[in-house]
Amino acid sequence: MDVEIVVFEGFDELDAIGPYEVLANACRFAGEGSVRLVSLDGKGVTASHGLRVGVDGRFGDATPGFVVVPGGGWNDRDRPGAWSEAESGRLPTALADSEAVLASVCTGGMLLAEAGVLADVPAVTHHSALDDLRAAGADVRDARVVDAGHVLTAGGVTAGLDLAFHLVAREFDDEIAERVAREMEYDPSDDVVVV
To answer: Distance (Å, rounded) from C-alpha 105 to C-alpha 80?
Structure first.
């Protein structure tokens, strides 16, 4: 299970770091796989709450099995974040070209919608952007995590943890997911819709 988490200026810290920790623990326990933080230009970024984040490489230089897209800044349109990334079009274009299974946390789902991969696909995002997701053509569902096979989406911020645990169970097994949950002292939600 090789995963890249694509970070950008203004992303929400927990949207990326929460899944990173879950997935990295799972790879360690399973003895296989990797998790990397990447950006479009291979340079570090500053997240929405001021955390400066270094990256392991450039998005598109490798071919991971999974790409996780955080959100943040969709509704605060005068600052860096998901909205400005959607407006520039660079990240949605890169996501549309990816052959990986795509997953999003929070308003990262709007970046997947801008990439054109959520048209008529069951999906969810942060509650404040559900109307935008619906307007983009997604089949909006009421769940913390929606697994449509080739694309997965999660609701707001903390739902990224549940997305990551679902991916671990899906790609490794329930035993690894339970071991990571014990290690992190987290009780993953079972509010997951698989279609």
So the answer is: 17
Residue 47 Cα to chain centre, angstroms: 15
* pTM reported for the whole predicted model: 0.98
pLDDT given at position 72: 97
For residue 41, give the CATH number of its domain. 3.40.50.880
Report the pLDDT averaged over residues 52-77: 96
Total domain count for the chain? Answer: 1
pLDDT score for 173: 97
Q: What is the mean pLDDT of residues 38-51?
A: 98
- Domain of residue 86 covers 2-194
